Amino acid sequence: MAGTEHTNVEDTLKRIEAHKGVIGTIVVNTEGIPIRTTLDNSTTVQYAGLLRHLAMMARSTVRDIDPQNDLTFLRIRSKKHEILVAPENDFLLIVIQNPSE
Amino acid sequence: MFTDEALDSVSVQSQWRISQQSAQESRSCQTRAVHRAEAEVQAGSSSTCCTQTETQPQEELHLQDGLELPGLRDFLQRVEDPVVRELVRNARSHAFDEFQVNGEDHRQRVSCLHFLQHSSAQERGLHVTSVSWNCTGSVIACAYGRIDDGDWSTERSCVCTWNLDRRSLNPKQADLVIHVPTAVTALCCHPEQPALIAGGLYSGEVLVWDTSRTQDPVLVQTGMSADSHREPVYTVAWVPLQKKGEFGVLSAGSAGRVLLWTVDLEEARFVLSAAYALVPQQLPHSSGSSSSFKARGSSTVGVTSLALSPWDPDTFLVGSEGGLLLRCSFSSQTPAAVPPEGQSVTLRAPAVFLFKPRSGPVHSIHCSPFHRNLFWSPSRPLVFAAATGQGEVQIFDLGRRSLRPAATIEGGTDQPATCLSFNHRNPHLLAVGRTDGSVGIWQLSHDLTEQGPRESSQLEQIANQVAE
């Protein structure tokens, strides 16, 4: 049972990573500790810490404007690439994509 | 009647003896106990404390192999679809195709920042023969001389430097003027030390000036020896030598000689360390050009320009009066087929490869830092600038796919522009020297200096097309 769950998780992540232009993926748990990553250690920790704060702020912004609303997706487009953040109550999925490739 | 009388003896004490006995009295005194306290002071002990920012302590990544966190799978299942949708949409989106945001203000036009002139050079009608930025990007050095003179001239000329970052910049008066006995034909600033400038003269000498010395700024010079050039030196360049941090000076003249000098500071002279001669018989033939090449019967290949390749420290490129572009290597060992004239170092033939010849003299070439085989501007891979004889400087942008120049810098006067130099530290600045003795510093517009996202790949495409 644990084995199949494990492979499902890995498969899902592999599917996401196989998309065009994806540079890396990071999965972060509730405490902000990255649990799965395809990037190197220091970059991962940096992304996880910073994006968690940003996602929390974005969510509180959305809820302040309308308390019945909630944040579903966060996209940050920069000169070099785009960062997609999918926040949930317990986990955070960060995907970094280079859209012009 | 008579009786015995016994008398007591009488003793008389000796006064003398008493006086000899010194009165002895013993007295003693003693101070009270001295309070003593010991304390030591020593300045020797020190403690050192250093602080240094360190990268954040890396938290352990819980990469669990067998154990799964509860809910991870469910989370991923929920999240996968929206994420994939967004990824696909991003890959197909054209929303940001031409969108380029920059925080700085847009400079849409090319504008002239400064117009520098040196009064005494202008009075004598000298042309600006060469300009060079120094390594920090703030000082521009200009060499004056004549280009159109065919004869040997003994006219004095000068090298002027202006520091553009100073507030007290006076465009009519140079910050530093170095007087030189003959016309200066080539100039190059040292790539690491901001005070050294190397120059080549019309008489064939090569000099290095040290602008930080207030007295005689000439640091070393070659003088007229059997080793040096006999013809005007057209280009001078600093070359990194084997020892890290040391630089030598490479000079090229119109007699076809390319000489490499090392600076000997103790004796304040140049030491010739390598010499190369370009002789037409020894140039390699490229396919299709051998017939036209043999028709030119000149005995030497006059070198007008030189460039070092940033990719390969062994190669350098040479452009000649006849329109040839050669790639040469420093370490070639074949000796040159030239009668020896008493030089101390044997000449070598360095040419390794011949590019397609052009029809006019090649006045200047620069190696592109972006691609091995093309020559361009330092910051944008697709932009290069050409100075024309009519006085305009045309800047071409290959990304626009048209033959017309992307921007043209008008002279203001109609004097031909003779030399150009991009500033490596501040890629917006371009210095243009003209025959009326003035140097213009231009600030290039925004789109000419910022690198767009696809430029490297476009450059690759163009390079591949040309190679075919």
Automatic annotation (TrEMBL), chain A:
SMART domains: Robl_LC7. Its main location: cytoplasm. The keyword Cytoplasm applies. InterPro entries: DYNLRB1/2, Roadblock/LAMTOR2_dom. Residues 9-97 form the Roadblock/LAMTOR2 domain. The keyword Transport applies. One of its GO terms (molecular function) is dynein intermediate chain binding. GO terms for biological process: microtubule-based movement. GO terms for cellular component: cytoplasm; cytoplasmic dynein complex; microtubule. Keywords: Cytoplasm, Cytoskeleton, Dynein, Microtubule, Motor protein, Transport. It comes from the Eukaryota. Belongs to the GAMAD family. Acts as one of several non-catalytic accessory components of the cytoplasmic dynein 1 complex that are thought to be involved in linking dynein to cargos and to adapter proteins that regulate dynein function. Cytoplasmic dynein 1 acts as a motor for the intracellular retrograde motility of vesicles and organelles along microtubules. This is Dynein light chain roadblock. It comes from Champsocephalus esox (pike icefish).
UniProtKB/TrEMBL annotation, chain B:
It is found in: Cytoplasm. GO terms for biological process: intraciliary transport. GO terms for molecular function: dynein heavy chain binding; dynein light chain binding. It comes from the Eukaryota. The keyword Oxidoreductase does not apply. Keywords: Cytoplasm, Repeat, WD repeat. GO terms for cellular component: ciliary plasm; cytoplasmic dynein complex. This is WD repeat-containing protein 34.
